[in-house]
């Protein structure tokens, strides 16, 4: 069970790193990066299925079954939003990168790295709390960048269609960051319930 959760965390980290790279190289050919992100999404679905299957097969699990299911679903949601951001960027044929989108993708990458670090540290839960606190800090930074980005779009006399397109992309990235925080909160609650980490 813990092994699958660790793989799910690593998968989130990989997807977020690919998205950050996509925004760094945009508008160069990003088809290979988007394909890898889609592979991560499929991998996330498969890992979630394996975790659920293990929950139903095992008499004993390290955590409550319902808690593990919610945690696995929360992690999978992060990758879903990452794929959505990548695909919307391509679908809208956005011509030039937005600095705030690049910054937001960087925050998501960092949040995903800390989320993965938390899962990797589950065998020694005392190491997990710092990663979880960092995810919360990244989420707050993401909120700030997201608000600033929307304000800049609406104040800059930008074409309304460009505003709509970028708003959708920015929202998908911001939601991925929020879902990282949601997964971190689920993990924190599980560890507190089982006496594995401070609240």
Low-confidence stretches: none
Following the backbone from N to C, one meets helices and strands in this order, namely HHHHHH
User: Any idea what the CATH architecture is?
Assistant: Up-down Bundle
Mean pLDDT: 88
> CATH-wise, what's the superfamily?
Phosphate transport system protein phou homolog 2, domain 2
Alpha carbon gap, first and last residue: 23 Å
Tally of strands:
0
Helix content estimate: over 70%
Assembly level = single chain
What form results from the Cα inertia axes?
A: globular
Overall number of structural domains: 1
Tell me the CATH topology.
Methane Monooxygenase Hydroxylase, Chain G, domain 1
Rg for CA atoms: 17 Å
Strand content: under 5%
Folded structure, characterized:
By secondary structure, the chain is an all-alpha fold. It has a single domain, classed as Methane Monooxygenase Hydroxylase, Chain G, domain 1. It is 81% helix and 0% strand. It has six helices and no strands. It is globular, with a radius of gyration of 17 Å. The model has no long low-confidence stretch (mean pLDDT 88).
Secondary structure layout plus pairing:
Elements: H1 2-25, H2 31-57, H3 65-91, H4 99-120, H5 128-155, H6 160-193
Helix pairs in contact: 1-2, 1-3, 1-4, 2-3, 3-6, 4-5, 4-6, 5-6
Summarize the model shown:
Helix content is 81%, strand content 0%. It has helices at 2-25, 31-57, 65-91, 99-120, 128-155, 160-193. The longest helix has 34 residues, at 160-193.
């Amino acid at each position: 069970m813990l092994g699958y959760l660790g793989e799910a965390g690593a998968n989130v980290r990989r997807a977020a790193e690919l998205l950050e790279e996509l925004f760094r190289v945009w508008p160069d050919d990003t088809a290979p990066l988007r394909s890898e992100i889609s592979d991560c999404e499929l991998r996330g679905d498969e890992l979630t299925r394996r975790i659920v299957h293990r929950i139903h097969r095992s008499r004993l699990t390290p955590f409550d079954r319902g808690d593990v299911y919610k945690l696995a679903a929360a992690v999978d949601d992060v990758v879903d939003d990452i794929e959505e951001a990548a695909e919307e960027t391509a679908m809208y044929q956005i011509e030039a990168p937005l600095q705030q989108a690049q910054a937001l993708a960087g925050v998501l990458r960092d949040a995903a790295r800390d989320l993965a670090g938390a899962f990797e540290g589950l065998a020694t839960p005392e190491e997990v709390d710092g990663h979880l606190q960092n995810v919360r800090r990244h989420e707050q930074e993401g909120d700030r960048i997201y608000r600033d980005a929307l304000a800049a779009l609406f104040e800059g006399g930008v074409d309304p269609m460009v505003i709509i397109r970028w708003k959708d992309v920015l929202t998908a990235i911001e939601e991925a960051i929020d879902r990282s925080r949601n997964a971190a909160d689920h993990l924190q609650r599980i560890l507190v319930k089982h006496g594995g980490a401070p609240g």
